[in-house]
Design a protein that fits this description.
The complex is a heterodimer of chains A (740) and B (413).
Chain A lengths: L4 E6 L4 H4 L2 H11 L4 E5 L5 H13 L4 E6 L16 E6 L1 H5 L7 H19 L15 E5 L3 H12 L3 E5 L14 E2 L10 E2 L2 H10 L3 E4 L2 E9 L2 E8 L2 E7 L1 E4 L3 E3 L16 E3 H9 L13 E5 L17 H15 L4 E6 L9 H9 L3 E12 L5 E7 L5 E3 L5 E4 L3 E3 L7 H8 L53 E3 L9 H23 L15 E2 L9 H5 L5 E3 L5 E3 L9 H5 L5 E2 L5 H10 L12 E6 L3 H10 L8 E6 L7 H9 L4 E6 L13 H18 L7 E5 L8 H15 L8
Parallel strand pairs in A: 1-2, 1-3, 3-4, 5-6, 5-13, 6-9, 13-23, 15-21, 16-17, 16-21, 17-18, 28-29, 28-30, 30-31
Antiparallel strand pairs in A: 7-8, 10-11, 11-12, 14-22, 18-19, 19-20, 24-27, 25-26
Helix pairs in contact in A: 2-5, 5-15, 6-7, 6-12, 8-9, 15-17
Chain B lengths: L4 E5 L3 H12 L4 E4 L22 H13 L4 E4 L2 E9 L2 E8 L13 H5 L3 E3 L8 E3 L1 E2 L11 E2 L11 H5 L12 E12 L3 E3 L16 E3 H8 L20 E8 L14 H15 L4 E6 L9 H8 L3 E4 L2 E6 L6 E6 L6 E6 L1 E6 L1 E3 L25 E3 L9 H21 L1
Parallel strand pairs in B: 1-2, 1-10, 2-3, 10-21, 12-19, 13-14, 13-19, 14-15
Antiparallel strand pairs in B: 4-5, 5-10, 6-7, 8-9, 11-20, 16-17, 17-18
Classes of the chains: A alpha/beta (740), B alpha/beta (413).
Chain lengths: 740, 413
């Protein structure tokens, strides 16, 4: 498209009184040679906006640079036709609110930002959305328990088709084995009848849900909107094209044979919670020797909250044991029910069930189990240290002991493929981020270069790392739900499954329109690979946090645009710079850097370039301005989609342009990382460490490049951070390449 | 024919999520929030457990999602007056309360500089003051000023009107009502902290240095009343010893019979605030059970080594009238001894009460005040802490599921 650029400079909010607006205009008209440059005292007012709109309509302006406030505000006011390219220059928050008014350096900063804005719009093309082939809006649900059936049914109720694949011959999963289920509504005191069969009937009767039982996923290939699933059933293979996937394979009880210290396997009357459900379902609760159970002890945290076994809390066992306590109390109100616990975790309204069991005579002992022994009549003696009294207590023989043995997600089983890759591949020596933990758990069998299953976080759960975004996934279009994602009870499971179904629906809808999903929702741009220059180095496939890029036999990248989250990490990773977006590219940022006017050495005006994560560091810089915190005048800020999109060539560009120092402001990484693209900021830091050597060789001290982690609320620390860096640069003296 | 719109009531993390998630699946959504900004209670939080990350980070992303999404229309300072109709066809009357500041506001701040009147700042739970014309907080979205009608001196003063170069201030603005036609409703009005004064033996409101957990969030926040310094309200002294008193109201038949679900983790988190400021400070946590569910156990394991955990329900808190130090009396259930610990500050882990003061007739509440989610009752869905006590992540999950239920209602008809 032939661009006709208009620059609109606002003089309101004291911009007019703080800056020489005429000189700013000259940067646009004389240096930038833009045909239209106008100023207005209230650009975001109706008249100001009309001025711009009029130029679009009658002057043919199709590229607009608005030099005013931060792009974080007035987004709704400066909204024009989608055929117009629009870019904002942040003169308010990041210039006059953070710099002294009517100062030479403030003016130079504002002028540079106009130059940078002009350089940027020159490189922006309107993105053309990606269109997949034969895209569908059918949801694949793997796992036919409460979670999976809920996801399939809820999607169907919203008008979508679902394919449900269950390994066992019947639907229902874990719930099939329950005698009763924990209460789901007020007053939360009495267990409810299990109604899973009703749900099974609904699923089986729903014309929009195709059910495969006794079936397994052989392979899922493709990408959102066009996944091809191969399903094996009765020796035959069926193919289904689906748009997105919900992983709902649940959890299994912790292996009780590992609990021999609690007598499991040694004494036949030490059983698991699961077995207790089975016994209760048969009517009178009897021991294998036929004796009616008159006394029982529940041992909580059998495996859970134990560094030797499951370090986490399985979240449901306390309530499940309370429920099972009612089984016996119902049969025999006089029965002795002991519950040995560390903390009773009857969260929320389940407090009422806890109170009820207390009222009904349950005996709660907060204690550590020292050991369990059996007497001649196969009754069990539990020795525990009562943490309330400190005393060692031993129960009289109880008829039965139930171990509340916790849960383990189905994704936690199988060989760890990342560990395997580590020893086999040459990439291993990279001081890269920790490899993803993927186990060959034979659930999804993804035909992905990055491994066949969902990457898991701690303890094998395929969870999201984000508190605000529990459905964030590292495999676009595949959402884990239920107890495979985190330990959760039935009520939570239903919510989780319904939520995951919505995320899966969103992904199909967005993919069909060529739009990105969270967090760059609606982004139409996607990376284009200039394959003729590819050297098959595999950086892009290795570094993409979302497993978006496959490889062919010759290691050529095979991008999957609907898996792509548009962060640009591949762009930053590519040493050959073959990856570009229509509106974000290595040359674009390179030219932005080159557009900065770098004063001669004798002017003693160093320049510091800040690459700032646009999600957190950039708003933090805005906040510094909003709080009128003054910071270093030498800085020039370039926001990046993610710091992980940083190309090392920009460091070289900056240095050869005479920039004295480069400061990377990105999100926290490590175990509690805050990067919205998982490992972007970490990758940037790793890349940076690699450039140090080169800098030293060029006689440029590696201290000229620095990276810090800032969160959005760290704005109060920014001035000191920048001053400290400026001080170090001052010690180093000017960039020796200045003026070349 | 296009499907009907969805109404989401409440602009906190639950309502925001329900609105955004529904709209990103293609629905038109109206979001109605009572306050002058979106973000609700999480905007007042310093950090989330267990990551200790700032809530504004996620809010920023969510606001970005709203900004780029033409299908969401939101109304701040608005409340629901009336709901008529059935699933698929509701007429909702919304009352829009006056902001006294119009769209022209550029958030330049000149008005606040000249405003002579002050008001108690409810964003900081009354621990400081703002001018009568103010910005709710620096991350406020939308970034527009607002006038507290009660505190404003009115047209006779009019200093802000004169200072505003953009004609943004309309002191004669009045409440307006308008109707929305929607197919379904998500009720996500969140929670209120339980009134700590009702637990009178803990002395909140009497003893200056007894504060609540929500106040602690503001004290620890760098944009809070003390710029992030945890100091005593009585004398501004940095706190060296702090006692967290769990179940201050919760799990108590005389107050809240239920467990509020988040306070254990919240106090453990707040213990890290105190420790981060001064690693020598002494932190006590008095508890009945520590409810760190699931993987939160890791956080508990990590924090408990740095603090003194005492199992026992605090009986009474008294104040030394001279020093304003607090004496916490508790029976240590492990040792049986009656302990008396003197501390600089007490943080009451007050629980959550569902914010249901304004629920329409179509909604029923259970005996604890939480909205009943009846699978048979279609069209109106509750989400988040108005439904049950939930942490942020679970609220988001629940709201996402409510969004799908709401979409189903618009598709059915």
């Amino acid at each position: 498209m032939d661009k006709k650029t208009g620059v609109y400079i606002c003089t309101g909010c004291s911009l007019g009184e703080s800056l020489e607006i005429e000189s700013l205009s000259k940067v646009a008209t004389k240096e930038g040679k833009v045909p239209v440059c106008k100023t207005h005292p209230f650009l975001c007012g109706p008249e100001g906006v009309a001025l711009i709109k009029n130029d679009i309509e009658s002057e043919g302006v199709n590229t607009i640079l608005i030099a005013a406030c931060s792009p974080r505000v007035n987004y709704d006011v400066f909204e024009f036709d989608s055929s117009v390219i629009m870019e904002r220059v942040n003169l308010r928050e990041q210039v006059i609110w953070s710099q002294p008014a009517n100062d030479e350096d403030t003016q130079m900063m504002a002028e540079d930002y106009i130059r940078m804005g002009l350089a940027k719009v020159k490189h922006i093309d309107l993105p053309v959305p990606y269109q997949g082939v034969n895209m569908v809006k059918t949801l694949l649900v793997v796992g036919g328990g409460l979670t999976g059936m809920t996801a399939a049914l809820e999607a169907a109720k919203a008008g979508y088709k679902a394919v449900l694949v269950e390994k066992s011959p019947v639907l229902g999963g874990w719930m099939n084995g329950l005698f009763k289920q924990a209460p789901r509504k007020a007053p939360f005191t009495t267990p409810e009848e299990v109604d899973i069969a009703e749900l099974v009937n609904k699923v089986e009767a729903d014309p929009d849900v195709t059910v495969y039982t006794g079936a397994e996923i052989l392979e899922i290939a493709g990408a959102p909107g066009m996944f091809d699933a191969s399903i094996s059933q009765n020796g035959a293979t069926v193919k289904e094209r689906v748009g997105s996937v919900v992983l709902a394979t649940g959890a299994v009880p912790y292996d009780p044979t590992k609990l021999d210290y609690l007598g499991y396997g040694k004494y036949e009357n030490v059983i698991t919670s699961q077995k207790m459900e089975e016994l209760a379902s048969k009517g009178k609760i009897l021991r294998p020797d036929g004796k009616e159970v008159q006394s029982i002890a529940f041992i909580q945290c059998a495996g859970s909250r134990d560094q030797e076994h499951l370090p986490y809390c399985s979240a449901t066992c306390c309530v499940e044991s309370l429920k099972q306590a009612t089984y016996l109390k119902e049969q025999n109100p006089e029965a002795n029910v002991f519950i040995f616990y560390k903390d009773m975790r009857a969260s929320g309204q389940y407090e009422r069930l806890y109170k009820q069991v207390q009222k009904d005579g349950g005996i709660f002992v907060r204690g550590e189990i020292n050991g369990i022994t059996e007497d001649d009549e196969k009754n069990l003696l539990i020795e525990a240290t009562d943490m309330l009294s400190g005393a060692t207590i031993t129960t009289e023989g109880v008829d039965m002991v139930v171990l509340a043995n916790g849960m383990v997600p189905t994704t936690a089983f199988g060989e760890d493929i990342a560990a395997k890759a580590d020893t086999e591949e040459e990439d291993k020596k990279d001081d890269g981020p920790k490899p993803e933990i993927i186990r060959k758990s034979n659930l999804l069998n993804l035909a992905y270069r990055q491994g066949p299953e969902m990457p898991t976080l701690k303890y094998g759960y395929a969870d999201s790392h984000f508190i605000c975004f529990p459905y964030e996934t590292r495999r676009t279009g595949i959402y884990a739900a239920g107890s495979v994602r985190a330990p959760m009870d039935e009520l939570s499971t239903v919510e989780d499954a319904t939520g995951a179904a919505l995320k899966a629906i969103q992904c199909m809808e967005s993919s069909a329109q060529g739009m990105a999903v969270h967090p760059r929702v609606g982004d139409m741009s996607f990376p284009d690979f200039a394959m003729s220059r590819c050297t098959q180095c595999k950086r892009c496939t290795v570094e993409c946090p979302f497993g978006a890029i496959n490889e062919d036999d010759k290691f050529n990248p095979l991008p999957n645009p609907t898996r792509c989250r548009r962060c640009g990490i591949c762009m930053g990773a590519c040493p050959e710079r073959i990856i570009t977006f229509k509106n974000y590219s290595v040359p674009m940022i390179g030219n932005l850097i080159k557009s900065i006017e770098v004063p001669d050495e004798d002017e003693e005006k160093p320049r510091i370039l800040i690459f700032a994560c646009e999600n957190d560091a950039y708003p933090a810089l805005d906040m510094a301005g909003i709080n009128r915190l003054k910071y270093n005048a030498w800085v020039r800020v370039i926001p990046l989609r993610c710091l992980g999109s940083l190309s090392l060539v920009w460091i070289a560009d900056s240095m050869s342009a005479g920039i004295d120092g480069i400061f990377l402001l990105g999100c926290k990484h490590g175990d509690d990382y805050q990067c919205h693209f998982i490992k972007g900021s970490e990758l940037a830091e790793i890349r940076l460490s690699k450039v140090s050597e080169t800098l030293d060789r060029l006689d440029l001290d590696s201290d000229r490049v620095r990276m810090d982690q800032v969160s959005i609320t760290d704005y109060d620390k920014i001035p000191a951070m920048l001053d400290d860096f400026a001080k170090r640069l001052d010690e180093l003296g000017p960039n020796p390449y200045k003026g070349f | 024919m296009a499907h009907k719109s969805i109404l989401v009531v409440g602009g906190g993390v639950s309502g925001l999520t329900a609105a955004i998630e529904a709209s990103e699946a293609g629905s038109e959504v109206y979001l109605v929030e009572q306050k002058s900004y979106l973000g609700g209670r999480v905007a007042q939080m310093n950090q989330y457990f267990p990551k200790l990350c700032p809530p504004n980070c996620g809010l920023e992303i969510n606001f970005k999602r709203i900004k780029q999404n033409p299908r969401i229309k939101f109304f701040t300072l608005a409340e629901i007056e009336k709901i008529d109709g059935v699933e698929g066809d509701y007429t909702v009357t919304v009352k829009s309360n006056p902001r006294y500041v119009n769209q022209n506001c550029t958030a330049c701040g000149k008005c606040t500089e000249v405003c002579p009147a002050e008001r108690s700042n409810e964003f900081n739970y009354g621990m400081d003051k703002t001018q009568a014309i103010y910005k709710a907080h620096e991350f406020a979205f939308p970034m527009k000023y607002v006038i507290d009608g009660q505190a404003c001196l009115g047209a006779e003063c009019g200093k802000c009107v004169a200072a505003c170069e953009y004609g943004a201030i309309e002191l004669d603005m009045s409440a307006k009502s308008f109707n929305l036609n929607v197919g379904s409703i998500v009720w996500a009005t969140g929670w209120e902290p339980y009134d700590a004064k009702k637990v009178d033996y803990y002395g909140f409101g009497k003893h200056q240095n007894v504060i609540t957990n929500v106040m602690m969030e503001r004290l620890a926040a760098s944009n809070g009343p003390t710029a992030g310094k945890i100091v005593r309200p009585s004398d501004g002294k940095e706190v060296k010893t702090v006692a967290f008193v769990q179940c201050a109201g919760s799990r108590d038949e005389n107050h809240l019979p239920y467990c509020s679900g988040v306070c254990c983790m919240a106090s453990l988190k707040q213990a890290t605030y105190v420790k981060a400021m001064n690693s020598d400070s002494k932190v006590y946590m008095f508890y009945i059970d520590v409810r760190a569910m699931g993987k939160h156990e890791d956080f508990y394991t990590k924090v408990q080594d740095d603090i003194t955990m005492i199992k026992g329900k605090v009986g009474e808190i008294s104040e030394d009238p001279e020093t304003k130090d607090l004496i916490v009396q508790v029976e240590n259930q492990l040792t049986g001894e009656i302990m008396k610990e003197t501390v600089d500050m007490v943080v009451l882990a007050t629980g959550m009460v569902p914010a249901t003061s304004n629920v329409p007739d179509a909604i029923t509440c259970d005996e604890d005040g939480f909205i009943v989610s009846d699978p048979q009752q279609l069209g109106v869905y509750s989400a988040g802490c108005v439904k049950k006590p939930l942490d942020v992540s679970s609220s988001v999950k629940d709201s996402t599921s409510a969004a799908l239920k709401a979409i189903q209602s618009t598709v059915r008809r």
